[in-house]
Amino acid sequence: MFVFNMKMKKERIIIAIDGHSSTGKSSFAKLIASKYGLIYVDTGALYRGVTLFASRNSFIGKDNTIDTVSLDEGLKSLSLQFKPSGPSGESELYLNGELIEREIRSLEVSSKVSFIAALPSVRNYVDSILAKYGVERGVVMDGRDIGTVVFPDAELKIFMTASARVRAMRRYREMTARGENPDFEEVLKNVEERDFLDENRETAPLRRADDAILLDNSDMTIQDQLDWIEKIIKERWN
Ligand code: DC
Q1: What is the Rg, in whole angstroms, of the alpha carbon atoms belonging to the chain?
Q2: In the chain, what are the domains?
Q3: From the alpha carbon of 48, which atom of ligand 1 is closest?
Q4: Which candidate among 5, 38, 79, 103 keeps its CA 20 to 30 Å from the CA of 96?
């Protein structure tokens, strides 16, 4: 149970949204950010960006073994930056100046990202990018370890989940809408594999923080979820 400091301005808070992949964390977090005037930060995009970088430079082998020495060396000069360049001013990720929003959502990156995200040096690299948001605050951040590791002092923590099949279907529809032709069973397998890797890695594994509120949205519309969060924010804030 968390308690809001009534004097704290909502604009200065951190909302941490963690949970399984394809639970709609990003869409939900974006809507919360726009409704409450907060900045949205997609931390998974940063792990995806590092994965794209590692993949392009052949630091990831066929069996997903990683040349960590070369990757760590590469991280020293890698620039990953969010810029508000989207059609409605939403932030998009750039790798050394190149827009990579589309590339980081490919099945190839999705199938490798958990291996990259398990590396302590990569987590340190991403955490160093995220740390600056802790100074300014006023953010909604979604990921796997935001409420447990990155910002354990976040004022509001939500842990999102849904059944693997529902999540795979969401991802499948997203890919189809982008003109890709995925195999549903492969997408489902990828969702389950990523759950396993995220939950069982040694560094910052995915787990629900003790003070995070559970949101299982298997049977909820986005409007249901917005009503749910609005009620929580009203109850605890106003
Ligand atoms: O949210 P996403 O599916 O875009 O995340 C991509 C991968 O990055 C996912 O396998 C877990 C990892 N990740 C992480 O380990 N920690 C975070 N804070 C965010 C993402």
Answers
A1: 17
A2: 11-229 (3.40.50.300)
A3: 6
A4: 38
